Amino acid sequence: METGMIDRGKKSVLGVMVDAVDYEAAVARIVAAAKEGRPYGVTALAVHGVMTGVGDPEHLWRLNELELVVPDGQPVRWALNLLHKTGLPDRVYGPRLMLEVCRAAEAEGLSIFLYGSRQEVLERLEANLKRRFPKLQIAGAMPSRFRNLTPEERDQVVGEIRKSGARMTFVGLGCPRQEVFAYEMRGLLGMPVIAVGAAFDFHAGLLREAPLWMQRYGLQWFHRLLQEPRRLWRRYLPLNTAYLALLLLQWAGIWSPPLKKPQPPRELRYG
Questions:
Q1: Rounded CA gap, 149 and 214, in Å?
Q2: pTM, whole model, 2 decimals?
């Protein structure tokens, strides 16, 4: 088993440029950007996240402009190892990444902001984070409006986050809305904007995580499907099949992923 920080750069998985990193490298890059006050878009992509870029050239552009895209799902890690021989021993799971970043933020005195989800989720999430990390500075929290923001509302969100003094922002808006938010807002906020999806619900205690054995064998999607079958079956069943087919075609050299669109995508202002 390889030890030490792993950071082998961005590699194409169906055209989405995913960073071949481990937790240590991902946390170090986020903390460095927070200390320097640099715009830094981060997301953790599983199969569904990768597939949102495969069929949408504009969104592919957004994903490939983010500074850090980590392999959240085991099938994405397997793809990096199969296609690019990266030798990653583990994925970088979004909910765990959030905790690791919070641990580092507590140690470094870097305050965080929580954006997205509902007010009751944020309250439980904040309480649980404070219980786990007593010295973590949570500068503020703001729920989603669950729609596209007006330019004035976007500026209000930016103003409140910046005024809070936070050095990084966690975003829980669901995929792909949170990746759009990270892409569009990181420059306006001048800090790491970290899209962590279901981590808000997991750490608030509202969703149960899959058993470790299911996570290890890439079956977390099936656990979530059993929890929310009506909402998630349309996401997982067709997309997982398409992902596997395209991955095999890329590996065999039969299909080459498309390049990103030659001009920036339109602004969506999800919030």
A1: 38
A2: 0.91
